[in-house]
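Researcher: Go.
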Amino acid sequence: MPKRTDIKKILIIGSGPIVISQACEFDYSGTQACKALKEEGYQVVLLNSNPATIMTDPQLADATYIEPINVNVLDKIIEKEKPDAILPTLGGQTALNTAMKAVEQGVLKKHKVKLIGAEYEVIKKAENRKDFKKAIEKLGLGLPKSGLAYSIKEAKEILKEIKLPVIIRSSFTLGGTGGSIAHTEEEFLEMARIGLHSSMIGEILIEESILGWKEYELELMRDSKDNVVIVCSIENFDPMGIHTGDSITVAPAQTLSDLEYQEMRDAALAIIREIGVECGGSNIQFAICPKTGRMVVVEMNPRVSRSSALASKATGFPIAKFAAKLAVGFSLDQIRNDITKETPACFEPSIDYCVVKIPRFTFEKFPEAKDVLGISMKSVGETMAIGRNFKEALQKGLRGLEIGHCGLDSKLDYRRISEDKINLRLEEPNASRIFYIKYALQKGYSIEKINKLTGIDPWFIDNISQIVELEQELKQNKENISRELLLKAKQFGFSDSQLALISGSTEEKIRKTREKEKIEATFKLVDTCAAEFKAYTPYYYSSYELEDEVKTSDKKKIMILGSGPNRIGQGIEFDYCCCHASFALRKMGYETIMVNSNPETVSTDYDTSDKLYFEPLTLEDVMNIINKEKPEGVIVQFGGQTPLNLAKRLEKLGAPIIGTSVSSIEKAENRDQFSKLVKKIGIKQPECSFAVSDQEALTAAEKIGFPVVVRPSYVLGGRAMKIVYDRESLKEFINKAIDVSPEHPILIDKFLEGAVEVDVDAVSDGEKTVVAGIMEHVEEAGIHSGDSACVLPPYTLDEKILNKIREYTYMISKELKVIGLLNIQFALKEKSIYVLEVNPRASRTVPFVSKTTGVPLAKIAAKVMAGASLEEAGLIREKKVNHVAV
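Model: Structure:
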């Protein structure tokens, strides 16, 4: 079919603010869709309220509305823009639910607007538990025993038929919201109430427990000609009972027999046809009983999902882009795969490597929260790793999490952990279970015993056992590790720092031994077709094999280090900065090289940079790429704290870091040096001190006077930072802080009660500094800037104060010799201005200031880092705004 000509203007609904279970994967899918539709000549209108996304960049759509996502706003935008169609399948559950309500309230009918990508009836059939159950039963496929309830009374009746434990699922929610597992009648009644309240239509599904069954997902696409492709099979490492967003997942599926896979595939094809998804991507989840082989259908998403982003990055098959093209009438055989340029989109991807996704949790931010996992999602981000086998990909993924592990290493001595503790951590799904599997194997637990306690397939446990056995062999031969053993360790995903821990050596010595033995990382292409066709898009992962598939050019190159997995304190706003840097530098004629491990982001899209390395952001992995590519410059300013923490060691190994110097970054990050700098230029700072012991901290706090702010050095997002009001609280803090940042002193600052906090973003070329935005916090100082509402322009500060803030910004920028971005936090108390913190890097507020003022700060910063002046980069003075942004 040719593309539709009855449609000229399309409105895309985004996913709004990031929430657990609806993160930047929808920025990725929305950005892909905008680009794909514009490519085909359609006018694109976008509704989204998230300032940190690439999707809401003004040049991406023809008209962008930064507005709340609800039917009332949608109605007004349709009235003004008069689009011909709405595409709701790329903005997560938010977009889908808003579109459904708009249909039900007659808004689309009133404006004669079509829904494309998925019909109303199709969405209803897939999302409504009752309709979906009916459709699956009609196909004769298995389902868990279940019943639908709309009241507590009905829920009690169903419980008589389905015995405890049961699973409760809400209709039309995201990330398992309102979903839970009930083991007792008391739990059941409480959870049923929550589930009914969470559902958009007051409906819950009460389902027999299939906890411990194996869980799989298939990513599919179907077009209007009834072509269907299975893009990717994904297997959950963790069994049923853990939300798939909280589970380690593996692609392609590893433990299915060919017969089981074909049966699942046939079922998926039948489901997508029965539900009626005609033009787009879908995700179908299955469960298989490990004892009997019984297969049941769990649920379906008739839209692009979190798993679609993972499947796209794992295979190089851009699901969101193709879904947008299918929505406007193309068929799969008419769309070319961008990576091979030869194979059509109806050619199913085939991959000759293993992909592992590992979720990242932030339980340390919530001391009262238990790190026990269930069917309601809790992870805040994820990392993806690619290897030639599961062992390699798993270990790369664990070090890519950036949680202090350099692979499947041991933070604890297994001999000191009781069997009771190990049994509990194996039985109870939790964020550390993968490491407790290792401790159990070291204790001598059999694969069968671990399988019985966890429900994890023996194949996965056996692979972990092989890692543990090789570690033991390395320990036994640590005085003289042979070349063969070292190569095998690298092929099993062991990092140099992990090998250093095992052998009692240093990372540097291990690297030198490797180089001497000519054991060096080789890079492989992600090519969608297991190398059957030539790949044109340079998208790489590392391994330790003979053949290297990287083609290096003689062009001037700049490498950008990304921000790794999302976490509280380091989110999508840093990815936005990395993407902008790449766009700007490409325009300047540089070959851009992106290094990142986050599958949810636009930065890891195959066409954002000239080259993409999907690798963990560790010293070893980054240096492997630098040695291969030999870039003229490496940018560490845009990826948050992750690249900054590597900067000093990278420079020491010869990495050409551009922009603000590493010594200046050190001056700002190191509190002692920073205090001296502030004193030197005569700016006030809250009285502060440093301590490396309990006694020093107590003496300093009493001298300064409680309350004090205490924090470790070199952390992001206020991690482990606290306001303490007495000696006891301070002692408690010190014990935890030593674990967070043991090699750096604890900082103790006088807490300014009742102060107004101000954030400043600026950019400098080393000679001239321009303030881009002065933001006033709505909450008083004491609430982290990432948790405080802020307003631009500032609303209570007079021009005299603002000029003083500008003057201080120029002084600090000059003293630190800033080249690129600079963020400073000030506090105002009783007409005095205090400097709280200086970050010579991209900050969380850069996208907000850029969208508010219309000045693309990250692009300008990238240009000055590459040698342009501010004037050449297009920024001469601070831009005044006549509107208010919050």
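Model: The first helix runs from residue 25 to 39.
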